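Standup notes
- HV: blocked on the assembly model, inputs below
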Amino acid sequence: MLSINNISKSFGKIDALKNVSLDLDVGMFGLLGPNGAGKSTLMRTLATLQLPDSGTVNLNGVNIAENPDVMRRTLGYLPQDFGVYPRMSAVALLDHLAILQGITDNDGRKTQVESLLKEVNLWPKRYSAVSTYSGGQRQRFGVAQALLGDPKVLIVDEPTAGLDPLERQRFLNLLSEAAEDRIIILSTHIVDDVRDLCLDMAIMGDGEIVARGAPEDLIAKIDGKVWRKQVDKDEVEALREKHQVLKTQIQKGGVTVSVLADKAPTGSSAGFKKSAPDLEDAYFAHLNRFV
Amino acid sequence: MFGKLLAFEIKLHTSQIGFWVVVSIMFILGALFMSLDFLSMSATGERIKANGALTVAVMVSFFSMFSIFFGAVFVVGGVMRDQVHNFLEITHSAPIKTSTMMITRMVGVYIAVFLCLFAFVLGLAMGQYMPWLATESLGPKNLLYFLQPTLVFMVINALLVSGIYTAVAAITRNKALVYVTAIALFLLYMVSGLMTTQSTPKWVMALVDPFGANALALAAEFWPAAEQNTRMSPLGGYVGLNRLVWGGFAIFLYLATFKLFKRGLVAGKNKNAIEAETLSTKAITLPTAKTNYNTGSAVKAFWARFKLEYLRTVKSIPFIILAGLCVVFFALIVIIQLNFAPDPVLPTNALLVGMVFGSLSLPTMLIIIFFSGEIIWRDKVAGMTEIIDASPVRNWSLMAAKWAALMAIVFTIFIVGLAFGMTAQVFMGDVPVNPLTHFKFTAFGFVPTFALYCILVLFVQNFMPNRIAGMVASAAVLIFFVIGINFLPFAHPLMDYGSVPAGSLSELNGFASLIGFKWFLLYWGSLAALFAVLSIWLWRRGLQSSLRARMKGLRKRITVPSIAVASLFLASFAGSGAYIYKSYNIDNNFRTAKQAELRRGKWEKLLGDQLKAPIPKIRSVDVEMQFSPSQQSSVVKGTYILENANAEPLREVYVSVPVSHKREILQLDIDGAKLVTDGENIKDLESFGIQLFKFDPAFMPGAKTTLSFELVQSPPVLGDGSRILRNGTFVDNFSSMPQLDIRDRRLTNPDKRRKYGLGEREKAPDRTDMLARQSLFFGRSADRVDFKAKVCTDIGQIPIAPGKMMRTYAENGKACRDYQAINPIMNFFSFLSADFEVVRSEWKDTKGLNGKDVDLAIYFHHEHAYNTELMMQAMKDSLDTFTEIYGPYQYNQIRIMEFPYRSFAQAFAGTIPFSENMGFVRDPGDPDDNKSVDLATYITMHEVGHQWFGHQIVPAYTKGFNILSEGLTENAAMTAYEQKLGWQKARRLLEQYTIQAYLTGRIVDRDDEPPLAKAEGQGYLNYNKASWVFWGLKHNMGEEKMQAAIRGFLDEYGTKNAPYPTTIELVNALRAAAPEDMQGLITDYWDRIVFWRMSVGGDVKLTGNEADGYEVSFTAKVDKRIASEADGKETSVTEIDGESLNEWVEIGFYDQDPKDTLGGDWLKLERVRITKAETELSFTLKQKPTHVLLDPRRLLIERNVTDNVKKIITE
């Protein structure tokens, strides 16, 4: 049980986290938010890489600021950006990281490294230097190292960036398999990643949690309030001023505008059709504080 | 567009904080190097002004070399920033012409480098105004002295350095290689500096320094003080050549870069092509694993990290290149030292391992500076910090791995160096390798110090925000502790981080004493351990690792066990420091350099007068010296018979006792005198080691009394060594027995005397001072003494004293020998004890010259037998020569004894100690090779010569005294050397030693140069100019005549008592033997400072043929310049009323370039009288000459002889 209590963090004048509180249990948790929302700051704080200015983070009742080891021993962390030592093979680097994770038994470690590399399908390329991998391969390596030591808390920050559709699918499969008995925090700005996998999620914007709950609950909040209409490009600005526009999608012919309203917009804006809301709508709705 | 881009480049550089840091540092350096006299590069002071034209020019050109370091950094920012910051694909696809892009960047880098160098010049200029700069050291402030060298040197140097870096950066696109280039350039610069000390052609020496400082030094080689202050760097000649070549090279580099630069991505630097993969879609299972978080796993993590750090560094290209450079550096030094020095040494174990580390010290420090940054910042640079720091690995594992890796890298270099050293020694084959010696030297002399440096540098890195700042700080810190601290007048060993003194290594005695080593190792080791603990506390972990954040989080890191450990180290550090301080400062008499200086001033005020007060004379010495080499202690007991040889009665006598503590005086009595124990100055006197006795009743003229003494030399302790060594003890009477002469401790440096208000340095008495002539130069306390000694030592060693060995016996478990001098000797003698091998021989007078038989013996260390036969023969040859020319040798025996450490030989009466690094291990070279100098033979001959000049002739203590000892001995040695090895080899020795040493020695003298006959302590006069003058004189007036005059002088004054002779008597003897037309020359040689200037003016005309003979005509230009004693300012005789030219000049004609034979092998040697500045001369020869050379035998004192020779060009 990971409980995040009122943590705040500023970098100079910028408030990256403002009073963020979350209680997380076993299972996949999605943290959705735009770039600059503070997701990575939160992830790094959870990974004990920085300390919050105020507030506490407790893992199973232990304050990880006081005892970072408690988190580190059970953490698997895939950072948003990471580099690797040049000219070091995947198997050598993974073995090295395994030692740092405390897997001291030589045979056990060898097995770990082998099976992880096979799971992420890097086994055929295990002797190549990780620094020569493509983006997707490097991301898979990152996943492998995050899974070292059977972590009970897994934090993945923007993990599907740079993966092609098949790789992305495999990765998300892998995650959902793993979610059986661990806390997995998936931090992303891609709505689709969260939609299918997460039973629990939060939307983060400007350093604050603006919504929390299961995806369907968040969607339910705007049920019956979403209206869509296809218009010309030049009409969009006017619509923005008059209504709560959720999103605009360019499709052949024109722009489909989705707005949030209790009733169908009338007057010059007539022509909106009620639509079933999806997670993306809920995302924008909550993010823009329309809800 | 161009202008805007250039402005952008300049703004980019000048907005970096690093740029301003460099500018500030260069400015401060300039101000310091101008204003602080101990930093001056050319002995500036009153004679050579600190802001003189040449001094400034040398500094401006030399300091350009600093651009080697910051040039690398600027070029990475200026030329490589696209790829460093991953911006390359964007900038290179922008619509800028490649040429514009390149040129603006190159110019930007150049301007940045130049501005930083110019900051140094500004600092130099500002330094003139610093209040602590003595006004006597300042000449007129002239802006041109600063601007001219900036234009001549700095502009091109900046161009060169920027050019090199730009080329490397733009073509290799490898940041690491740029930094490696920095180190490589620096090392190459150092090597080029080495090559200039040996005999390479001058134009090569001028070119070898790309910054022009060496070319300038060559051009100004013989400029006297006055010229150095006012004459600016010449634009032609060596300097011009240097500027042309290197400037041209710089431009070439820029052009090459321009041509070879490829825009865009370079193949091989990008990621590999991505192959399509088939990903399996089967179900995924995650493996379980057992994890450990105990100490064992932390150790395993440490080991894994250590291997990573070490192997990655050692296999990296920069390291391989640097290690390779180290080896090259070492190889060059070995080759130069062992082959190209005119007096090479044999490759003994101690020597070779000393060379290994002498050459590796600097590169190793560069490696420490460079790789500490690499290692500490490796994870950040690779982008792995987040993953590593989020893992449960302990801070200490990470830190210890990095620290251990750096030290392991240094050890790797050492091992490579050792391997090369031993291999080189085996390869050279002369001396068998003793690996133990090599390892011992490494383990004691180098490993601890460099390990400590590693730790210091790594500790400093904790506080630095990035890699470059880290490297700069490391460099600054190392420079301070290696070099800077020696200049601090208040320096104490407790401040000298890393200094763990094991001392020199001797093949006889190993390390003299390791007491200091052990304590300082404990002291600095504790501090280093404390650094380690602090570093763990301050370890950068996670993001937000600024120093402030880490300090805030300190409380969490400090655990009880770590506090306990830190306290332990702190206690050890403080405790050992306190003990060292107590030992040095309280129990013994340690003084800082500044305190020592002050003391000397105090001494002068207290005892200066005593130097002239009347004292008794010692007539006889009877001494018993008991050595205990295994304890490194001794007891000396004995009596002096004293006589009052003055006209007045004596009421007091000051006795100087060479002990460290009063308790080491077991007995000191004078019959008829009482020791004074209270009085106002007694404490001060005692602190100077002086006991005051008062005679009551007075000690009457002609009366005699007895002085009895017993002194102890205690075994070595921390802070106070012992002169008694386990093997190879060598003590003289001044350092072991009571003295009536008070050692003159007055400050001699005129700038320091001024600083302390001590007045002008008192010069030696005039030669006409008859009172002074009553005392000989060794001291006033004796004429000659009867000498008897008993010396005992441990069984297995041989004790040696001067005199005839009367008997050998054992007593009280010790080996003893009795010695007695058959005739009185000077009160200057020595005692030795060592485990000697002995070779013996005998010299017999085969020519009926009244010479007695002389027993010859050489006592040496068993491994050093290389030259004993040579030295034995040299003794015989010198006895042959000297007995014939100067008369019989006065004693029964000559002994040569080897002693450890040091590098000198000394002539006592019939005993000649020779240090292990002198004759015994000098490579004498092939006797038939005219280019090699056999110093083993020469120095043996010199020391034997002293038995005549120094022990038979004993000079009075007046001006010119040492000419009669060293000067006459040098003449004797040259004579014997030439007789043995031939004229060519003697000529070589004259050229490479004598002449060079005189000409350079006189330039660095801070005091005024006196005429030769009035020389005082100047080695360049007593040894070198004297030798040159005797060489010139003997060829001018005839060798037999000159030697006969010296013989006459010896017969008249040798082995007699007061009044002792001076150079007046010697020169008079020479004048009496010389013809009338030589008297002027004798005046020029002895009584004034004269330089001749000769050259062949214009072309040489050659007419004639083989049948009829040839006629050679040319114009000889001759000038004679008299130098003023005050500042060396020279005036031609043609400009002085009452002076005229009237010189004998030799002219040689050759059919090959006379350079290789140094003027020997002439077809014809003519001698002409020159009375005009320009003289038309004509000569006839039978053979066809190709070269003309004025003064081929170098009989006249001339500095520049390159224009004395002319090649005859035939149409």
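- HV (later): unblocked. The interface with chain A takes residues 271-272, 274, 277, 279-281, 283-293, 296-297, 300-301, 304-305, 308, 312, 378, 382-384, 386-393, 542-544, 553, 556 of chain B (CB under 8 Å). Residues 562 and 729 of chain B are 49 Å apart (CA to CA).
- Next: hand off to the docking folks.
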